[in-house]
């Protein structure tokens, strides 16, 4: 019988996440029944939306989250032993998946020598959000000026690079000089450190003297109002998140933005990754191709050990991660805390028959 480690909700998040908000439990898994399969988690995704969804949590539920896992036992011919799956199985080391489970599970296609963690980032949920959230909603055209907030985060860093691939002028907003330098190395045309700038509006005018055409919003708050006030008529805004407010105990107050939206005839749309589910593989294949062509680079902040998953989430909410934050649960290979895996591009394989 397999014994799983599981993080469950002990207390609904209130303000900043605390160690006592989640509880590490042990669970004995029953033998498999027909149609079921057992998976062992290798990597867990750590994302800001986990804090944003706190209002829907119930005490005792398994903490939500996407993982990359290996099938180690199976009574399901579609999901045989040895395959790698990606799915929303939560913070668990082992899971029994039933045929009726709705966990957005798919078998990971051939990704060559990329680490499995990439299936949570650039060729996973992060890359999917960046791809559709930017291309479908912002509808960029060559020459557009694009602003990305949370630009050194998992989604923002990919959005900025896709914008460059599409021939756009890209302005990234981030919160440290190290992150700013990294964004410059990715090809961002202008980077603003919002923690040190004396006047965000004036800095935006330097980076975008002809105005802003597209805005990819990960942050919300007053910063978004300032950015939208400098958008061109007919500008497009894609709202991915509002991390500036996730830890707030009371609703955040921001400058009124409706007059800007009306006056500049802006299109503003929020999105969730799941609305594009039928097209996920389109984004995965395209992002993988861009990685192989060295057009799309990716960086990870890795936390080792399942027991440290809550610590990793706290770090994400404080902006400590660069690029995608993941937890390595299974495996003995030693990796650096900040991993850039693009050095092996020449060895990457393309999808086989996908």
Automatic annotation (TrEMBL):
Similarity comment: Belongs to the NADP-dependent oxidoreductase L4BD family.
What is the protein name given in its UniProt record? Prostaglandin reductase 1
Lineage of origin:
Eukaryota, Metazoa, Ecdysozoa, Arthropoda, Hexapoda
Instruction: Provide the protein's localization.
Output: Cytoplasm
Concerning Gene3D superfamilies, the annotation shows: Medium-chain alcohol dehydrogenases, catalytic domain, NAD(P)-binding Rossmann-like Domain
Q: Which UniProt keywords apply?
A: Acetylation, Cytoplasm, Fatty acid metabolism, Hydroxylation, Lipid metabolism, NADP, Oxidoreductase, Phosphoprotein, Prostaglandin metabolism
Q: Which GO terms describe its cellular component?
A: cytoplasm
This protein's source sits in the domain of life called Eukaryota
Instruction: List the GO biological process terms.
Output: prostaglandin metabolic process
Q: Name one GO molecular function term.
A: 2-alkenal reductase [NAD(P)H] activity
**Domain named Enoyl reductase (ER): which ranges?**
15-327
Note whether Secreted occurs among the keywords.
no
What reaction(s) does this enzyme catalyze?
A: hexanal + NADP(+) = (E)-hex-2-enal + NADPH + H(+); an n-alkanal + NADP(+) = an alk-2-enal + NADPH + H(+); 13,14-dihydro-15-oxo-prostaglandin F1alpha + NADP(+) = 15-oxoprostaglandin F1alpha + NADPH + H(+); leukotriene B4 + NADP(+) = 12-oxo-leukotriene B4 + NADPH + H(+)
Q: Origin organism of this chain?
A: Zophobas morio
User: Per the UniProt record, which EC number(s) apply here?
Assistant: 1.3.1.48, 1.3.1.74
Predominant cellular place of this UniProt entry's protein:
cytoplasm
Q: How does it assemble?
A: Monomer or homodimer.
List the PANTHER family.
PROSTAGLANDIN REDUCTASE, PROSTAGLANDIN REDUCTASE 1
Q: What SUPFAM superfamilies does its record include? A: GroES-like (SSF50129), NAD(P)-binding Rossmann-fold domains (SSF51735)
